[in-house]
Amino acid sequence: MQNALRVLEGRWKLVILFQLFGGQVRRFSDLERAIPGISQKMLIQQLRQLESDGVVGRIVHHQVPPKVEYHLTEWGQSLCPALDALLIWAEGAPAELRSRLIQEGPDGDAQKPETSVT
């Protein structure tokens, strides 16, 4: 179980995965814009870890300027039902807890509620 959770640990990995669900292929710059608060260095690091763990695939288009796209591998896409269930579980939290979780993230930063990944 610890090895499975290690693949998902980190502040940004789940956010990145949600951006790639549904077979989406996203450019690095699109991911950077879609995830406010993440530094370029952290996004690169998290994507590399997800890629080395076989969850995310990387496509390099040899052109000028360089174009790099990311997508979920078939194995990565199989996470969708599990993470959708996690969202449903979080939405079932008591109202006072749920509103506090939505208003404050782990660092006390204001957060937007996430939407389901179907």
TrEMBL record:
Start and end residues of each HTH hxlR-type domain: 1-98
GO MF term list: DNA binding
InterPro entries: HTH_HxlR, WH-like_DNA-bd_sf, WH_DNA-bd_sf
Gene3D superfamilies in the cross-refs: Winged helix-like DNA-binding domain superfamily/Winged helix DNA-binding domain (1.10.10.10)
Signal peptide (UniProt feature, chain positions): none
Keyword entries, A-Z: DNA-binding, Plasmid, Transcription, Transcription regulation
Protein name per the record: Transcriptional regulator
Lineage, broadest ranks: Bacteria, Pseudomonadati, Pseudomonadota, Alphaproteobacteria, Rhodospirillales
